[in-house]
Amino acid sequence: xxxxxxxxxxxxxxxxxxxxxxxxxxxxxxxxxxxxxxxxxxxxxxxxxxxxxxxxxxxxxxxxxxxxxxxxxxxxxxxxxxxxxxxxxxxxxxxxxxxxxxxxxxxxxxxxxxxxxxxxxxxxxxxxxxxxxxxxxxxxxxxxxxxxxxxxxxxxxxxxxxxxxxxxxxxxxxxxxxxxxxxxxxxxxxxxxxxxxxxxxxxxxxxxxxxxxxxxxxxxxxxxxxxxxxxxxxxxxxxxxxxxxxxxxxxxxxxxxxxxxxxxxxxxxxxxxxxxxxxxxxxxxxxxxxxxxxxxxxxxxxxxxxxxxxxxxxxxxxx
Length: 319
Ligand code: FES
Prior knowledge:
Largest sheet: 6 strands, antiparallel
Strand order of the largest sheet: 4-3-6-1-2-5
Number of helices: 7
Strand content: 25-35%
Number of strands: 18
Bound molecules: FE2/S2 (inorganic) cluster
Distance between the termini: 13 Å
Structural class: alpha/beta
């Protein structure tokens, strides 16, 4: 069971075109749980509408959380609902969780943000600067008016380590990914967050340049995988009771479980946040998420039931 708490929107700020930030404080006026750079909270917008947002403020702060939200034209409801919120309103959030933490013994950190992917990087940059760590932050956006937190980054102590890149700007300032990643060395770690295309471009350039997989860290905001016409039905079995549950061709495992009275916590429902990860004790999952690593996919002992399916007729779940 995920712990939740009520918070009040102390401030809502337009940070750039289609991007608002929200400063959240505890509704009871107390301190908020501590977090580490790269962490996110799940915001509960309605009964079945829960969305993860990265915390962008300095991780040493417990009097507030800062999140920022891009209004997505193809929103499934989350970003539009967030943008409709007003200062003074109360909302429910989860405790912070971190699947995108900094590597503590790294000797250098290369932070690459695309668009709203800047949010976890802000907390990372703050923490690394406070620790005197070696890092640089590259921030790629379409144009200056779509670039959130510009003033904040220009005024930060670590401003000399930040580079802005706009797709619509002169070629001399656009990001040359291949040049940036061409010299990996042991102890240097790369972190990337942003749109899927940007992330794939960075990760494939890094792999081609010889970066070890263990030095590449990523967090996706939105999944790219969807149901296909060839999806078939299969069964999932609860290991605790032996109960067999049918998953229809057009149904997610999470939905089939919920219909049978078994609730699995979810947040993104797109295979990017890891909230729903469930252990698989038997059978072969068909992974459709962007959260688990290739190694975890190959092991097949866990999967994301919000979007992944089965290659075998039955999956036995640790539920
Ligand atoms: Fe986010 Fe399944 S709910 S990965």
